[in-house]
Amino acid sequence: GLSGNISFDERGDIKGRYEVVNFRRASSRAYETKGVGIWDEASQQLSINISDIIWNDDALSINQTESFSSCGRKCSVGEIYSYYKNTCCWECRKCQANQITSVNATKCLTCPVHEWPEPVELTSCKPITPEHIEWHHPAVIVFVILSLLGVTACIVILCVFIRYNDARLIKATSRELSYILLAGITVQFAIVLSTVAKPSRFVCVLNYIGFNVSFTLVYAPLLTRTNRIHRIFCKGKVTTQKPHFTSPLSQVIIACTLIAIQVSCVLS
């Protein structure tokens, strides 16, 4: 040909020569393209005049002299290469917080239960280190102080009940049920101490049982006492005969039965 040898590929397409142009600013309001080299597909040779190229100085660092061309950026830690269909180019996709990168950063794998990605490379899972609140934490100190004050108050009230156990006022409050109620309140205050303790199998079982049973120790005597008063007033409207199961022993048995039902449900 007039410009040199002409060759064709296996499909019959001509192997051409392509001009490399530099797109640059010509003035403050106009741009232009200027040829700076030739790419010969047949000989696989590039002839280019670097001195004719004007780079975009705003996009380059001080020491950079050439632009960099790539199908996609290098993926960061925790990202995988997601390749486009029928091309070698890719985009970076971030894995979820509980996933690691594997197979040359082309696939996200979810860590097993109770494991979490190691924080540096995010390529392996490691067991999760349990974290718990420390005794020196300000909130724990406040809770412990309030808990101890509550337990102390319950002990003082118990001593008063024992000291005046035969007083009419104490007897009128259903003292047997009051002792059960006081025990439940004491357990509720004391369970705070085990709640802020370092978790273990024993502590977890203690918290679970103590939390549920403590409320039953409070509600069971209240329910029993309310039922007793209700039956006494209802019975008094029609007869002077004393209702059944209103004695202190009967009341304790009813309350303990309710507590036993709750304990069996908790332990089952």
From TrEMBL:
The chain crosses the membrane at residues 139-164, 176-193, 205-224, 245-263. Its main location: membrane. InterPro entries: GPCR_3, GPCR_3_9-Cys_sf, GPCR_3_C, mGluR, Peripla_BP_I. It is a multi-pass membrane protein. The lineage of its organism: Eukaryota, Metazoa, Spiralia, Lophotrochozoa, Annelida. SUPFAM superfamilies: Periplasmic binding protein-like I. One of its GO terms (cellular component) is membrane. The keyword Hydrolase does not apply. The keyword Transmembrane applies. Pfam families: 7tm_3. GO terms for molecular function: G protein-coupled receptor activity. Residues 139-268 form the G-protein coupled receptors family 3 profile domain. It is found in: Membrane. It comes from the Eukaryota. This is G-protein coupled receptors family 3 profile domain-containing protein. Keywords: Glycoprotein, Membrane, Receptor, Transmembrane, Transmembrane helix.
